[in-house]
């Protein structure tokens, strides 16, 4: 969430001069995002019986309203502060907020649809879509590595060889770490944080002999595509080596590995998520040794999934970090 906040508004949620006010802002956003994700994943009878949608029988719309309002209020404050900074001729931050404010100004001259409300919608979307997804992927990756010590050793070996005595991993190092790249692919194959994506047919189309009428909601089961035994050898096994020839990537046309969806609706956070997941994972593994608490040593990590818009671990991972000398 902090990486997103810095990319979007140059606000550091953990430290810096505005630490106390920004961390309460971070908590506000974080709580709103968590609750909104749970509400959004709750099956809603209104979706199946639109005629009674106005009654909001489960109260989902009633509960979502204040959360969205809370998120938008925080965004309004950020917009207002940035406009004040601009009036005071503060140097530009060159972040996403600067970019969209410039765009809004340009588009206003041309009478376009981009306005404060669509921008707030985009920012809210990015916060909801971008925070739990990357952190969940990292948690699954750590769990899978702890359950597969021989893979963990290979990862550490690669990090040691490539980074040597360098203490901090940098974004530019990722390209030199093909085995970690393969590990991330295998984690996102077996444990795709977003297990399903939703589409709506804008026109009637024919797909492989099936007619899909206009207006149909299509649910794509990403999780099942990734475990299809006709496509993947030993599909249930954690085997990063299957990706070592580098042929399959997240946007290849074959649509075998689609944790970020595909086509024109592919996750717009893919480049950021790719960097974040690799960088955080590599940093955790390069700087610390990790051991399981005694009770998990024998049984291994419980990899049971908890269903939601984001699939999380049913038993959150507990692990002990030991600083390297
Ligand atoms: C490992 C991390 C992530 C995974 C697995 C993931 C996965 C996905 C998936 C499956 C979709 C649906 C794509 C489709 O409909 O075909 C999606 C959409 C989206 N993602 Fe991500 N995502 C991740 C990280 C992020 C991040 C970091 C951001 C923000 C910076 C983000 C922003 C979005 C947005 C805004 C959409 C909606 C795009 C649209 O409907 O046009 N995601 N993501």
Automatic annotation (TrEMBL):
GO MF entries? heme binding; iron ion binding; monooxygenase activity; oxidoreductase activity, acting on paired donors, with incorporation or reduction of molecular oxygen
Q: What is this protein called?
A: Geraniol 8-hydroxylase-like
Keyword Protein biosynthesis tagged: no
Pfam families, per database record: p450 (PF00067)
Instruction: Report keywords, A-Z.
Output: Heme, Iron, Metal-binding, Monooxygenase, Oxidoreductase
| Source species, domain of life | Eukaryota
Mind telling me which InterPro entries this protein's record contains? Cyt_P450, Cyt_P450_CS, Cyt_P450_E_grp-I, Cyt_P450_sf
The answer to whether UniProt assigns keyword Heme to this entry is yes
Alphabetical list of Gene3D superfamilies matching this protein:
Cytochrome P450 (1.10.630.10)
The family assignment reads:
Belongs to the cytochrome P450 family.
Q: Which cofactor names does the annotation list?
A: heme
Q: Which residues are listed for heme binding in this entry?
A: 267
Species lineage, top-down? Answer: Eukaryota, Viridiplantae, Streptophyta, Embryophyta, Tracheophyta
């Amino acid at each position: 969430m902090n990486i997103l906040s810095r990319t979007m508004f140059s606000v550091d949620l953990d430290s810096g001069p505005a630490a106390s006010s920004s961390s309460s802002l971070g908590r506000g956003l974080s709580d709103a995002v968590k609750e909104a994700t749970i509400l959004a994943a709750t099956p809603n009878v209104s979706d199946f019986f639109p005629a009674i949608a106005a009654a909001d029988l489960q109260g989902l719309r009633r509960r979502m309203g204040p959360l969205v309002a809370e998120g938008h209020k925080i965004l309004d404050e950020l917009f207002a502060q940035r406009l004040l900074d601009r009036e005071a001729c503060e140097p530009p931050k060159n972040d996403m907020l600067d970019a969209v404010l410039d765009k809004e100004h340009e588009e206003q001259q041309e009478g376009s649809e981009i306005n404060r409300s669509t921008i707030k919608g985009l920012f809210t979307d990015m916060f909801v879509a971008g925070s739990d997804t990357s952190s969940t992927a990292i948690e699954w990756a750590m769990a899978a590595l702890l359950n597969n010590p021989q893979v963990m050793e290979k990862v550490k070996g690669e990090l040691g060889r490539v980074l040597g005595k360098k203490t901090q991993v940098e974004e530019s190092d990722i390209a030199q770490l093909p085995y970690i790249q393969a590990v991330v692919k295998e984690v996102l194959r077996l444990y795709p944080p977003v297990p399903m994506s939703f589409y709506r047919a804008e026109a009637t189309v024919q797909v492989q002999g099936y007619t899909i009428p206009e207006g149909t909601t299509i649910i794509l089961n990403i999780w099942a595509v990734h475990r299809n035994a006709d496509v993947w050898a030993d599909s249930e096994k954690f085997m990063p080596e299957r990706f070592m020839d580098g042929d399959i990537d997240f946007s290849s046309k074959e649509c075998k590995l689609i944790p970020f969806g595909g086509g024109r609706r592919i996750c717009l956070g893919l480049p950021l998520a790719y960097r974040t997941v690799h960088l955080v994972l590599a940093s955790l593994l390069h700087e610390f040794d990790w051991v399981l608490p005694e009770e998990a040593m024998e049984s291994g990590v419980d990899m049971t999934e908890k269903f939601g818009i984001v699939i999380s671990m049913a038993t959150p991972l507990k692990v002990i970090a030991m600083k390297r000398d």
